[in-house]
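Recall the central idea of this unit: under ordinary conditions, the amino acid sequence of a chain determines the structure it adopts. In this exercise we apply that idea directly, starting from the sequence alone.
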Amino acid sequence: MRAEGKNAPATSATLPGPAAPDEIDAVASAIDGGLPRELVASLTRHNGSGAFAVPPTHQLGDARLVVAEYRAHRQTDESRGGPDHRRWWCSRWVPDAEAVWDMEELNRRHGFG
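Accordingly, the structure predicted from this sequence is:
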């Protein structure tokens, strides 16, 4: 039994199961530059956090949400193009958690941990 199952069995019971390998492959294909290993590990363990909010108010995105948010951010940024366009979003960022007011992103540029 994993640590969350031992220490928080009620919460553990609400978490979704792992993403299927083909779902993780689909996310990797949709994201320019590949996925951070931490996101792969997270999706392999739980495909998002379901209704469980990671403190303070974040819900980890499932494979479908990560792809949808990445594409939406990229399209929005590209639609604001022009010679003097200042980018507000970076394609190295991978949306991974949805907050009440915004998305959180992993930055693949600097590495993790």
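The chain has a mean pLDDT of 77.
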